[in-house]
Amino acid sequence: MDAESIDWNEVWKERMEAQNRACRNSDCGSIWQKKESARRFWEMSRNNGGRIEKTIQGMALTPDSRVLDIGAGPGNLAIPLAERVAHVTAVEPAEGMMSVLKENIETYGIENINCVYKDWEAVDVEMDLYGPYDVVFASYSLGMKDIRASIRKMIDVSSGYIYLYWFAGETSWDMHSRKLWPYLHGYEYQQGSKVDVLYNVLYDMGIYPNMEVFPFEHVQSFASLDEAVDNFKPHYAVMSEEQEEILRAYLKELLEEKNGSLVNRGWSTRVKLWWENRG
After folding, report:
1. What are the structural domains of the chain?
2. Whether 193 contacts 147, CB under 8 Å
3. Which of 50, 137, 160, 193 has its CA 20 to 30 A from that of 224?
4. d(Cα 243, Cα 185) in Å, to the nearest integer?
5. Summary mean pLDDT of the chain
């Protein structure tokens, strides 16, 4: 096949749809509907403060910057950013994440963040946003069905830099899903689109981004096996008692005991892509 004839946006859609079907039609946001899961994600991000600081230092920010955070989660970037810039708009579709984000805004007494409780593809640029933004970014939140249209919307509200962060190759959770899916669901797991497809979508749009590739390891701690099972059930589309027992047995072998806690060590290869929007 001639590479120039490939519609990379369709490749992105097909892979995302295949993953969605394998996950029983649960999207990324559905994993974070529970407030407990969102709170645990917030705590984990605080334990990885070095990565947060490196991400912020890697953006073209000034005290006057207006920033759009797409897929803001519980505010792991939006909260520290708000202390350094003029304004942050945080877009987040998951109920649990938005609830914890609003709690964090109140806890830290932040007044320059406005929240948009919507999926990025459902956001109305004129009604929901206060653009243009000097910095627009999506940090590991690119589970959009139509990535080309989503990027065009980012461009429409940008007056400066756009930063996208995504994954290369198989992640630890992909690996666990690949092993578990046949036992849990009776068929093979399907990975979603990775950075190779994303780069080609951008290339076809006439965007030739800067790129930085780096490995990342994260650690999750749980007080008990029950807590770990409850955390991972939505990640692996576990619904029945039989599936829960399969997951429990897998986690019992996987998790490490350390200082009275059960620890899960995850890894991934991550990619930062960025460019200046010159209109």
Report:
1. 3-171+187-217+269-276 (3.40.50.150)
2. yes
3. 50
4. 8
5. 92
